[in-house]
Design brief:
It comes from Colletotrichum melonis. Its EC number is 4.1.1.37. It is an enzyme of class 4 (lyase). It is found in: Cytoplasm. Belongs to the uroporphyrinogen decarboxylase family. It is a single chain. Helices cover 46% and strands 12% of the residues. The chain is an alpha/beta fold. It has 2 domains: 1-72, no CATH class; 74-433, Alpha-Beta Barrel (TIM Barrel). The strands form 3 sheets. The protein has a 7-stranded parallel beta sheet with strand order 3-6-7-8-9-10-11. The chain has a two-stranded antiparallel ribbon with strand order 1-2. Helix 19 (356-363) links the parallel strand 9 (347-349) and strand 10. The longest helix is centred in the middle third of the chain and has 25 residues, at 253-277. It is globular.
């Protein structure tokens, strides 16, 4: 039987200085190797997660025992700019990618989607993979990452809720959670979610996409943040008033926290399985974070974001998987930036309400990378306006050293954008940072 094992290009210093090395573990067979891997992902990796780790190489090892499941292997990564920037390393230029880069603004998206329902596209690994790769192929050389085509609302679906995507209106929950006495609330809370089988189609799409990428750029996996998913589950869809969400947290605070915790636990499992399938970085989207004031954010959003950042690395270690960079995007919660910097994420996404230079001042010497943050609406403007927006970001985020910034927008690209205007925006980022 061939065992496929990830070994680092260079061992963590503590392992290299003494004790049983990787080759000794390999020679000892699967049990010794498992012990080595378990030790290698122990506590000091969580304290200093990137200490001694560089890109991994694959080795094929022969053991007589039959493996239950073979570990996936992919072509080596040719462009690791995103991962290095996320780790806080000095880079030759800031990496670029765009939220919702696989989407409705692309003519080829509509051709590939055809008459399929949105969630049908998500559930078909071949279609999801095709849609994921469309911007990588159209903007070859300008994008430094792919993000899997999926949706944050697959988690409520896994929790047993029905979610429909209504054309031109967005997501709709026919039966939202109404009160804690609602039978569906107890059903969701007590559901033993088999995250591996319920969301298997996402993992298949990730693995297929990694193989198709052939190492061109890293692949990002993602989930919605507990607070944002909670809002959809009680509102029944998008909203401007957040009346039900506010009723829940201010009238049923403890029951709300129980649901938020349930969602957070499912998110950890879901993200870990995405990494196992091939995701090289993960992102947590808290799209409705800005609907909470400073105190409410600290009570109903931040603790559950922290739960994910604390427990995902532990879960990966249990699975003998290396830690991957983690991004959080608390859209609109500009007031919480100082505290969010300290909750364990490698990258913080910023929306366009945050001034780049001010964000850098708040960060100080703390090791975190910012992502963003031009107004997506600038892509409807003139090229001169786009250049000015890029100049503001470059000066604010990148002027004091070539690290700490991943270029993006302050939210997802919108459907009416001309793809060639996005090309210009990306090209300007490259042009203004190449020196």
């Amino acid at each position: 039987t061939t065992w496929l094992v990830h070994l680092p290009d260079r061992l963590p210093r503590r392992r290299a200085q003494g004790g049983r090395g990787a080759q000794e573990a390999v020679d000892g067979g699967p049990e010794a190797l498992a012990g080595f891997c378990s030790d290698r992902t122990a506590g000091h990796f969580l304290d200093d997660p990137w200490n001694g780790i560089s890109n991994t190489r694959h080795q094929h090892l022969q053991f007589p025992q039959q493996a239950d499941k073979m570990e996936l292997t992919f072509e080596p990564l040719k462009n690791d700019l995103l991962l290095r920037a996320a780790r806080g390393e000095t880079v030759e230029r800031p990496p670029c990618w765009i939220m919702r880069q696989a989407g409705r603004y692309l003519p080829e998206y509509h051709e590939a989607k055809g008459t399929r329902d949105f969630f049908a596209c998500c559930r078909d690994p071949e279609v999801a993979s095709t849609l994921t790769l469309q911007p990588i192929e159209r903007f070859a050389g300008l994008l430094d990452a792919a993000i899997i085509f999926s949706d944050i609302l697959v988690v409520p679906q896994a929790l047993g809720m029905t979610v429909e995507m209504v054309d031109k209106k967005g997501p709709h929950f026919p039966e939202p959670l109404k009160t804690p006495t609602d039978g569906q609330y107890e059903k969701v809370l007590s559901k033993n979610v088999d995250v591996a089988s319920e969301l298997d189609y996402v993992y298949k799409a990730i693995t297929l996409t990694r193989k198709k990428l052939a190492g061109r750029v890293p692949l990002i996996g993602f989930c919605g943040a507990p607070w944002t998913l909670f809002c959809y589950m009680v509102e029944g869809g998008g909203t401007k008033l957040f009346m039900q969400s506010k009723t829940w947290i201010y009238r049923y605070a403890e029951e709300s926290k129980a649901l938020l915790q349930k969602i957070a636990e499912v998110c950890v499992e879901y993200l870990a399985l995405q990494v196992k399938a091939g995701a090289q970085m993960i992102m947590v989207f808290d799209s409705w974070a800005g609907e909470l004031g400073p105190e409410a954010f600290k009570e109903f959003s931040q603790p559950y974001l922290s739960y994910i950042s604390e427990n995902l690395p532990k879960k990966l270690a249990e699975m003998n998987l290396e830690r991957v960079p983690m991004t959080v995007f608390p859209k609109g919660a500009w007031h919480a930036l100082d505290s969010v910097i300290d909750i364990g994420y490698d990258v913080i996404g910023l929306d366009w309400l945050q001034d780049p230079a001010e964000a850098v001042k708040i960060r100080g010497d703390r090791r975190v990378t910012f992502q963003g943050n031009a107004d997506p609406g600038v892509l409807y403007g003139t090229h001169e306006r786009m250049t000015a927006a890029v100049e503001t970001m470059v000066k604010g985020f990148y002027g004091n050293g070539k690290k700490g910034w991943i270029a993006n927008l302050g939210h997802g690209i919108t459907p009416g954008v001309n793809p060639e205007d996005l090309r210009f925006y990306l090209s300007e980022i490259h042009r203004l940072t190449k020196n």
